[in-house]
Amino acid sequence: MINIFQLLLTDPLLNLLIFFYKLLFDNFGLAIVGLTLLLKIVTLPLTIPSLKMMAKQKDIAGELAALKNTYGKDKTLFAKKQMELYKAHGINPASGCLPQILQFVILIALYQVFLAFLRHAESSASGMNSNLYFDFLKFSPEEKINTTFLYLNLAKPDPYYIMPVIAGAAQFVMSKLMMPKQVAKLEGAVVKETEEKKDDIMYNMQKQMMYMGPAMTVFLGAKFPSGLVFYWFLQTLFSVAPQWILTKKK
Predict the structure, then answer these.
(1) How far, in Å, CA of 32 to CA of 158, rounded?
(2) Membrane insertase YidC/Oxa/ALB C-terminal domain: which residues (predicted)?
(3) What is the domain count for the chain?
(4) Cα 178-57-84 angle, rounded to 5 deg
(5) Which end of the chain is more exposed for a tag (fewer CB within 10 A), N or C?
(6) Domain containing 95: what range?
(7) CB-based contacts of 127, cutoff 8 Å, min separation 6
(8) How is residue 133 annotated by DSSP?
């Protein structure tokens, strides 16, 4: 199974990364920018429908909150009414899962790619040649990988924790874009009017997740190679633009 994963994902990503590395003046940081942008463009057809679906869900937040207030005591009836509302507006709540799963799988593959870089960064880069498809991508026996970008060694964790904090902050901004203030206030107001305390707990959990995600990014980012954290920051940054455009259209 691992060999299939390597064959279908890890090796192609490694070759793409080396391609951008060679193209962009042997600069590992610029190579990550190029790879991230390419992956974002390739996965855009999957991401845009998901973002549109999320925008629709925000549009009906008031109606959904009203349903919760009316049918909240009867969970079965509320679930039925909720699905009827989703169906009426052409919303499939599960449609947003595929892009997130894909991003997670790519992240795992990139982690393995960066580990490969780490193994060969301080020795000969030619150790990766067996995984490279074309001769022009391969390294000479004496060639070493340049992992320096700004103040970072991208093959190692950020010693100053700056990149993990920036990545976490970008993720928080993205979360705020996905949950505009007027929607949050409306949902919060209706939840407080609901008699059942479970609704307050569910709402509070949703609010906490907006902070827990970035916090986990900072925590894990402090331990992972900074190149992986840099990719996660860029991936979030490149996600803000289409999300912002869709939000402004509403």
Answers:
(1) 16
(2) 28-247
(3) 1
(4) 165
(5) N
(6) 2-249
(7) 119, 120
(8) S
